[in-house]
Amino acid sequence: MEAITSLHSDFRSEARRFGRFLLGELRPKGKVLTPFNVITAGLIMTTIVLLTIRFIGGLGTITNLSQDVPWGLWIGFDVVTGVALAGGAYVITFMVYILRLEKYEPIVRVTVLNGFLAYVFYAGALLLDLGRPWNVINPIIGNSFGVSSVLFLVAWHFLLYMTAEFLEFSPVIAEWAGWPKLRKRLHALTLGAVVLGISLSMLHQSGLGALYLMARGKIHPLWYSEFIPVLFLVSSIFAGLSMVIFEGTISHKVFRDRLGQPLREGHDAIVIGLARICAGTMFAYLGLQVITFVHQGRGAWLGTGWGNWYLVEIIGLTLLPAIGFLLGAQRRNPALIRAAAVFSLLGVIINRLNVTVIGFQWTAPVRYVPSWQEVVVTLGVISAEIWVFRWVVNRMPVLDFHIPSRKRESIGSRTATAA
Fold this sequence. Notes:
With 419 residues, the protein is mostly helical. It has 15 helices and no strands. The radius of gyration is 23 Å and the shape is globular.
């Protein structure tokens, strides 16, 4: 009885301590009235108003969606493109925890955080696009499972992958909250969560592509292929790593006071290593595109407007960035690599939109064009994700955390060799 009373007293004491700690952490850090805060706060508030109108009056009140085009910008960009850009999480965790490439350990936490938030916000965007959003739980609770649908797999993959990524990041939360025992137990689950997360991510990256296999007559021949699932999977590798490079560049400027020594000293070496991987996967992706181009006889489209747009994507936004990554890695030029990363991201965004929006229903007399409300909601979702990311990075040990001395020496020696 005394043990139970003591345990209850300790719990109440810890709850009060954490409550006071959390209230202190909720206070803003830094300037509040900055141009970025004002603009993004306006976008978020406008998004809240627009979504209120959407859920009261239906999709037709703020979107240009129809029975012929039920999926638009919110699916094409927020979900299909957003998931590809979040691919860096499963790639980096595979490199760090499975391949034991310790050089990349300083960026593993921030990459997992980025991936987790991307899935939370972009999977949440699915609710915006459903005519009956309350039915989103049907594949989970067993009410019309729909096991023959690819969306059934995607729904479960999303749910389980978000759970896996939360488990991967949970030791950081426990460390921030001052719970060392809980952190130790959660850390023991990391490897299992990583293996599960990698498997699920690879499946649903390709699964999103598989959704469009049944739209053969609706997608332009330059972008439809039986290899869409494979192309989506391969492109998610260099898309995710390009986002890691892009995000890391911004974080080094915005959160420079939060950077730990391993990340500060090894950043350029990490960027160069990621560039090599991006170059390799992009050339593999281009090889698959060439095979598809020849196999499906797409040459007849060259010289047309669609053909020119296709060449912009393949040559201007895939081949040239791949060469940029290769040269940047060979010459150890981080500036060239960062430029290549930006164009690589644009290429993946254009590719996903070509499949889901631009090249979809391409023969329809009236084409779908997103309404300004759809664009604002998308920007509002991105702004909210950035706010949450900034709040977490400014408080939790994401960019500055302890790395065991043996690993730190290994990282330092590899950084010196790369320099």
